[in-house]
Design goal:
Number of strands: 14
Strand content: 5-15%
Length: 593
C-alpha cells in the first residue's frame, strides 16, 4: 500500500497496535482471525471503515444496501481501507407499530455505542427510509469520526393504467376516491401496490427523498447521491465511489464537526422548501443540528424557508416521481438554481473536501418540466409557515401542498386573505377519528377544522403520522376533498394535506390542545403566524384544571424510557440528556479486560 500519513492517528491503533498493552492487542485481534482476517490487515496502519448496515428483510426500503454494501467494500479496499459491516437497529416507517418515530432515537443510541466502543476510524452511513438518515447523522455528530452518507435511492416510478402512482401519495388520494365511491377496495389495493415496482424507498418527495436530499444539501453525501433510483447502475457506482471517498476522509480527518455549521443547516432548510419536501424535515433537521451543537431558532423555518419558491414538480406537491427528478439533475441542479439566486451559502465544506458551490458547478436542470428555473417556479413562496398562539408555542404548515380549492375556500376572503376561522372538531387519537369521522352528530361541514391530539412524542408515544385526516365521506362525495387539520403529531411526507403539524407542547405535555373542545372557534392567520382558539381566559383556566386527556400506558421498556427522556417536536424530539455528548471518540474508551 502507498505510504500515507493520516492527519491524526487512527483510533483503531489503540486496539490493534498498542505497544504498551500487548496482552490487550492480542485479545482484540484474535477473534477476528476466526473468519479469515489476517493480523497484518489490522496492524499495518490502514483505517478501519465501518459500514452501518440499515438494510434487512424488516426494512424493505433499505434492503438494497445488503447488495450495495458489496460495492462499498470494493471501494474501501481499492482505496486502502479495511471494511467492517455491522447492523443498525431497523427502521421501517410503513410497518413499525405504534410508530417508527420511536426508533430514530433508539437507532441513534445503538449507533453511537457501536462507533464509540469499537475500533472504527470512519463510517459509511447507509440511509433510505425516513429516519435512517437523521439517526445516522445524529450519531456521527455525537461521535465525530469521518462519516459519509450513502442513500439507497428511491424505487422506480410506479404506473397504474397509464397513470403515475407515487408511493404513499396514492394511498391518501385513493382513500378519498374510495370514500367518494369512485373506486372499490380491489382497485384501492391495485393502485397502492402498483406504486412500489422495485427496490428502494418512496418514489415521491416524501420524507425519505427529502431527508436524503437534506444529507446532500448539508454536504454529507457525494454530489448526486440522493436521487439515483435504487435499481440504476449509477447507484452501485455511487456506492463504490462512496467507499473510496470515506478512506480519503479518514486520512484527511474530515469529520462532521468540520462540515456541519449553521450555514449548512440553513442551506438544508431552503432546499427542503425548493423541493417541496416533507414537514417531517423540521424535527429531523432540528435534531441533527442540536446533536451537532448548532442553534436553529423556530422562526428560521419562516425567515429562511418561507420565501423560497417551489422548483421541483414532484408528488405530492407536483406531478412527477423520483426517476424523472434524477434524470432532470436531482439535488445538484436544485442547489445550482438556489446558488445562482443567492439563496444558499456555496462556501460550505462538504465530504468531497470541496465546497458546495464547487460540487454543483455546471449541474443544471435538463428537464424544465421537473426542475424549474428559480424565476419561473411551480409556485412562489412555497416554504413553511411557523405558527404560534394560545394552543401551542410552535407548529408548522407546509404551504407547497395548499391546493387552489383549499386556497379559494379558506384563504381568499377579500380583505382577509390568508386568514380564516373554523369550528373545531376534536379527536383523541386516530382510533377516535376513524370511529367517529362519519358520525352526523359531529355536524362536520366545510367550515370545520379537524383536530387530533394525543399523537405527540409523549402521547402516542413517539409522535404518529395521523394528522392528515380526510373529511367525512359525505363531504368528499360533495366534492370537498380537504378540510383544515391540526394536530400535535406529524403527517406522512407523501401527504398532500395542508395541515398544521408538530404542535408543541403537545396535549400530553399540557399544551393547549388538551383544553380545546369540539365547538370552539379557531382563528388561523397565516400572515401573522397565529393560531388561536377564541375562548375566554377564564374558561381556559377552568378547563386546564381538569388536566390533560389520558394517554395509553407504555407497553415496552423503551416506550417508558422514550417518554421519560424525549423532548417535543419543536425541539427535534431528541433524547434531551444526549445533546451534551459531542466528539466522544476523541477519548478512547477504557480497556475491557
Amino acid at each position: 500500500m502507498p505510504d500515507r500519513t493520516p492527519a491524526r492517528p487512527f483510533r483503531s491503533r489503540n486496539w490493534f497496535a498498542d505497544p504498551a498493552r500487548s496482552d490487550m492487542t492480542a485479545l482484540y485481534l484474535e477473534r477476528f482471525m476466526n473468519y479469515g482476517v489476517t493480523p497484518a490487515e489490522l496492524q499495518d496502519g490502514r483505517p478501519i471503515i465501518g459500514i452501518a448496515q440499515t438494510g434487512s428483510d424488516l426494512s424493505p426500503c433499505n434492503r438494497i444496501h445488503v447488495e450495495l454494501a458489496k460495492r462499498v467494500r470494493d471501494g474501501i479496499r481499492d482505496a486502502g481501507g479495511i471494511p467492517m459491516e455491522f447492523p443498525v437497529h431497523p427502521i421501517f416507517e410503513n410497518c413499525r407499530r405504534p410508530t417508527a418515530a420511536l426508533d430514530r432515537n433508539l437507532a441513534y443510541l445503538g449507533l453511537v455505542e457501536t462507533l464509540y466502543g469499537y475500533p472504527i476510524d470512519a463510517v459509511v452511513l447507509t440511509t433510505g427510509c425516513d429516519k435512517t438518515t437523521p439517526s445516522g447523522i445524529m450519531a456521527a455528530s455525537t461521535v465525530d469520526i469521518p462519516a459519509i452518507v450513502l442513500s439507497g435511492g428511491p424505487m422506480l416510478d410506479g404506473w397504474h393504467e397509464g397513470e403515475l402512482v407515487g408511493s404513499g401519495t396514492v394511498i391518501w388520494r385513493s382513500r378519498r376516491k374510495l370514500a367518494a365511491g369512485e373506486i372499490d377496495e380491489a382497485e384501492f389495493l391495485a393502485r397502492a401496490t402498483a406504486s412500489a415496482p422495485s427496490a428502494g424507498h418512496c418514489n415521491t418527495m416524501g420524507t425519505a427523498s427529502t431527508m436524503n436530499a437534506v444529507a446532500e444539501a448539508l454536504g454529507l453525501s457525494l454530489p448526486g447521491c440522493a436521487a439515483i433510483p435504487a435499481p440504476y447502475r449509477e447507484r452501485g457506482q455511487m456506492a463504490y465511489e462512496t467507499g473510496r471517498r470515506i478512506v480519503e476522509m479518514a486520512y484527511e480527518d474530515l469529520r462532521p464537526s468540520k462540515i456541519l455549521d449553521r450555514a449548512a443547516f440553513l442551506n438544508a432548510i431552503k432546499t427542503v422548501s425548493a423541493i417541496g419536501g416533507s414537514s417531517n424535515a423540521q424535527p429531523h433537521i432540528v435534531a441533527m443540528a442540536r446533536h451537532a451543537g448548532i442553534e436553529l431558532a423556530p422562526d428560521d423555518w419562516s425567515v429562511h424557508g418561507l420565501d423560497i419558491p417551489l422548483l421541483v414538480n414532484m408528488q405530492p406537491a407536483g406531478k412527477y416521481l423520483g426517476e424523472r427528478f434524477h434524470r432532470a439533475g436531482g439535488v445538484p441542479a436544485v442547489l445550482s438554481e438556489l446558488l445562482a439566486a443567492g439563496q444558499v451559502e456555496g462556501g460550505c465544506l462538504t465530504v468531497t473536501g470541496r465546497t458546495l458551490a464547487e460540487n454543483v458547478a455546471g449541474r443544471v436542470s435538463t428537464d424544465r418540466d421537473v426542475i424549474l428555473p428559480y424565476d419561473q417556479p411551480l409556485r412562489e413562496r412555497a416554504g413553511f409557515v411557523v405558527l404560534r398562539g394560545n394552543l401551542f408555542d410552535f407548529a408548522i404548515m407546509k404551504t407547497s401542498v395548499i391546493s387552489e380549492e383549499f386556497r379559494a375556500r379558506y384563504l381568499s376572503e377579500p380583505g382577509r386573505e390568508g386568514v380564516f376561522e373554523a369550528r373545531a372538531v376534536v379527536f383523541d387519537g386516530s382510533d377516535d377519528y376513524h370511529h367517529r369521522i362519519n358520525d352526523p352528530a359531529l355536524a362536520i361541514d366545510e367550515r370545520s377544522i379537524l383536530v387530533i391530539r394525543g399523537s405527540g412524542p409523549l402521547g402516542w408515544p413517539g409522535s404518529a403520522e395521523v394528522v392528515n385526516m380526510q373529511p367525512p365521506d359525505a363531504l368528499i362525495q360533495r366534492g370537498i376533498s380537504s378540510l383544515p387539520t391540526l394536530g400535535d403529531g406529524r403527517q406522512s411526507g407523501t401527504s398532500d394535506s395542508p395541515s398544521i403539524l408538530n404542535a408543541s407542547p403537545e396535549s400530553a405535555a399540557g399544551g393547549g390542545l388538551a383544553w380545546l373542545r369540539t365547538g370552539d372557534t379557531i382563528r388561523i392567520d397565516l400572515n401573522a403566524g397565529r393560531c388561536d382558539a377564541l375562548v375566554e381566559e377564564g374558561e381556559i383556566e377552568r378547563r386546564k384544571a381538569e388536566g390533560p386527556p389520558p394517554v395509553p400506558e407504555s407497553h415496552t421498556p423503551w416506550e417508558e424510557l422514550y417518554r421519560e427522556k424525549t423532548g417535543q417536536l419543536a425541539d427535534g424530539a431528541v433524547l434531551e440528556m444526549a445533546v451534551k455528548y459531542r466528539g466522544v471518540a476523541a477519548k478512547t474508551p477504557r480497556h475491557n479486560h
